[in-house]
Amino acid sequence: MSKVYVFNDFGGPENQQLVDRPAPPPGPGELAVKVRAAGVNPIDHKIRSGALGTDLPLPAPMGQEVAGVVTTIGDGVEGFAVGDAILGPVAPGYGAFAQDTIVRATEAVAKPEEISFADAATIPVAAATAYDATHQIELEAGQTLLILGAGGGVGLMAAQIGRVHQFTVIGIASETKRQIVESTGATFVPSGKGVADRVREVAPEGLDLIVDLIGGDALRQVAALATSPSRIISAADPATATEIGGSALERTSEAMAKITGVIEYGLVDPHVTARYPLEQAGEAIVAVETGHTTGKTVIEPYSA
């Protein structure tokens, strides 16, 4: 038997549970993977809450991004072998918070030896999101990038990508995250009342790109500082971004492989700051759900 973390009904964390089930076999084009690490993301609790719809069959496995070792190859798969270390998003209907899961071969990327399983598990969702967000609108060196929600895993990676491209990066986050935001080379601006004035002081000529990872009123407070509403991209609140003239984040198929290479060469650090065993997956999800985590949180079903 193999363990997987699921939710049995839509709503709060009280609906979550660790259960036993047979290790899933791969179908055509799929890889069965022994999970070594899984990234925890806000989308995990949003799916469980029902905020993204309630048409999933229950119980529903939780978790979206994994790194692990291939245990079985499905029919028609080429380019991978049993024992290969890979990273990728889990196939629909499967979960990352598990001892064993399934990844589509076309969506898997070989894990470089230079990247730990914990760091690799942050790439399919978080790092790829940061890559797409900082490339959807191309900036030139010296132009100004504002990251709203810079203290989380996606925000910290976006800030580092901005540094690699020599953008002027401004990161908005809570005061408790000042040190880690500034460690990326970004100019830190504390969130809260009056944030627009504080941003205007450090960027009086306006913002060439706003990457929004918070949404709602936080986005509205700084939106007018963009040189054009079209230079607002939201991964957290597409509806608000679109309403004010911006756009939703557009995910690309090449982002995962490209950011893997960037991390492999040490140009970006995923900043994994918390690790939990599978038995404490509920605690990991709650930590991310509260919004007070810094950097990335991962679940490790097996010791590295």
UniProtKB/TrEMBL annotation:
InterPro entries in UniProt: ADH-like_N, ER, GroES-like_sf, NAD(P)-bd_dom_sf, Quin_OxRdtase/zeta-crystal_CS, Zinc-ADH_QOR/CCCR
Compartment(s) of residence: Cytoplasm
CDD domains per record: MDR_like_2 (cd05289)
Signal peptide: none
Top-level lineage group: Bacteria
Keywords noted in UniProt: Cytoplasm, NADP, RNA-binding
Gene3D superfamilies per the UniProt record, alphabetical: Medium-chain alcohol dehydrogenases, catalytic domain, NAD(P)-binding Rossmann-like Domain
Presence of the UniProt keyword Nucleotide-binding in the record: no
Keyword RNA-binding listed: yes
Assembly with partners or alone: Homotetramer.
Identification of the protein by name: NADP-dependent oxidoreductase
Stretches assigned to the Enoyl reductase (ER) domain: 11-299
Species name: Oerskovia merdavium
Pfam family, one: ADH_N
